[in-house]
Amino acid sequence: MPRPLARVLALLELLQSGGVRTVGELAGRLDVDERTVRRYVGHLLDLDVPVESVRGRYGGYRLAPGYRLPPLMLTDEEALAVLLGLAAGRQAGLTTATATASETAAAKIRRVLPERTRPRLDALLGSLAFTAPPGEAAAPDATVLLSIADAVAHHRPVVVRYTSGDGRHGERTLHPHGLVAHSGRLYVTATEPATGAERTFRLDRMSGARVLPGSFTPPVGQPDPAQRLLTALATAPYRHEVSLRVQGSAERIRSRLPPAVAVVTELPPAADADPAAEPWHRVALRVERLDWLPGVLAALDLPFTIEHPDELRDLVESLGRRLVDSARRGA
């Protein structure tokens, strides 16, 4: 490729990265003088690439907002980042209902890669293994996802057609606050204006979304959407309501009982407590089954007290006897 043409393409690549680039900055990056930069900009304009001139102290050149360039130029690192992101999204289950979109997008990117780059990236993607199985969660509709995102960004109410976990269908009006990705699913945290209740909704259960005119004022001083989702998951109604007191750091407790599973609250120290001792925390969780909790408590290896239910106390005692029997059997 002739050197001036290569520099014109390099200029296009710099402008595609976004923002306003000063003439001096472009000249330094391209290793040419400022007059040559202006000539290269003229070449791009001749090719109908909409380069805008920005005046002022911090002026320079930029691409017109919203213009879709036919030649998408990516460096090796950028192409690798995009392809890895697509692969990770498919693995995590974070795709839209058009499941083939990520595959066709990756194919288009590979098709326009230079011959020297494509085999190396294909080799990487072909040899990459994941420790977790592929996500199998139902994917949301792309139109629904984009509509909800627009409503969140501009604080607009939205009407959705929603199917609840028990199979009931209906329309809901929501004031959406944030989108959260968790365990291969996309959720929206929202307030239902009719009741004032704060709720979380799965986007894959929405079959339609319509943004309404007007706007709402988001709540002030509330936890961020991710924390609200984790709290909602941890306090969802299940068969058993468990309350424990555990002595140790909150970080150590959450290593086995993360925020999506349990709510951990530090308790005030007793009047006669040792100031150097670890604090006590109340751990509250709701679960459908109790049989997995004794093993988690044993793995924590921290002092604990079971407040309720008594059934959990029996399960912990049973596990303790089995552990003692197994240890003695070895001797």
Helices and strands in order, then pairings?
Elements: H1 3-16, H2 23-30, H3 34-46, E1 51-54, E2 60-63, H4 76-92, H5 101-111, H6 118-127, H7 142-154, E3 158-163, E4 169-182, E5 185-192, E6 197-202, E7 206-211, H8 225-234, E8 240-247, H9 250-256, E9 263-266, E10 280-287, H10 293-300, E11 304-308, H11 310-330
Helix pairs in contact: 1-3, 2-3, 4-5, 9-10, 10-11
What is the ordering of alpha helices and beta strands? Answer: HHHEEHHHHEEEEEHEHEEHEH
Share of helical residues:
25-40%
Number of strands: 11
Give the low-pLDDT segments: none
The main β sheet shows up as: 5 strands, antiparallel
Helix tally? 11
Mean pLDDT: 83
Cα(first) to Cα(last) distance is 77 Å
The secondary structure category is alpha+beta
**Radius of gyration over alpha carbons?**
28 Å
Give structural notes.
With 331 residues, the protein is α+β, with helices and mostly antiparallel strands. The chain is built from eleven helices and eleven strands. It has helices at 3-16, 23-30, 34-46, 76-92, 101-111, 118-127, 142-154, 225-234, 250-256, 293-300, 310-330; strands at residues 51-54, 60-63, 158-163, 169-182, 185-192, 197-202, 206-211, 240-247, 263-266, 280-287, 304-308. The strands form three sheets. It has a five-stranded antiparallel beta sheet. It has a four-stranded antiparallel beta sheet with strand order 9-10-8-11, with helices on one face. Strands 1-2 form a two-stranded antiparallel sheet. Helix 1 packs across helix 3 (34-46), helix 2 (23-30) crosses helix 3 and helix 9 runs antiparallel to helix 10. The protein starts with a helix and ends with a helix.
